[in-house]
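#structure-requests
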Amino acid sequence: MNATDGGTLPAGAAARRTVERLCRTSVRQAGVDGCGLSALTKAGTPLALHATNRIAAAIEDLQFTLGEGPCMDAAAAGAPVLVSDLRDPSEGVAGRWPAFLDEVDRVGVRAVFAFPVRIGAIALGVMDLYRSEPGGLSQDQLATTFSTVDALSRSMLDWERVTPEEPDESYPLTVHQAAGMVMVQLDTTIDEALLRLRAAAYRDGRPVSDLAADVVAGRYTLGEEQT
């Protein structure tokens, strides 16, 4: 029985709903404009799970495509990355994320805050918050955000228990599917397949999710782009 039949959601689906609710809560409590959540592959590559709006989704996709940005740094360092004004030279963003800075400037993002999602030494993912206007997070906003991140870590563990009978309708499903296909086609690892998808999307100047949809539909095959 599913939720539409009046029953309860499967464990994995319920975890997804909790994650989505926590992301919305974080937006409201932190006084920001949007939130994106990425899970980490075994190699530490962030892969988007959920975004509260179009711009948040674009930020997650850009970082995966470009291989740079606050999410990447937070994942690598295991510490928050807080940038209250992307255009402030003292933040050093132009030297750290030049391509990311150019792209987010086009969608009107001025501040970004990335928080690692962990349980002890286990790195699960990264939560990104953004603002269209410059400005940092207050101590109260930071405290509530850290509480939300702790709750997200528990829910993300449950998310991984989704079975094949419980299709995941979250943002990056086609990316997961495309990476699996590329892994088989190129006889490589899943992380290498993700890197190949990212490189192809960057070269073509398009979102990874769009390219992945073409791969899944059979309209694009990695390896053919160089022939």
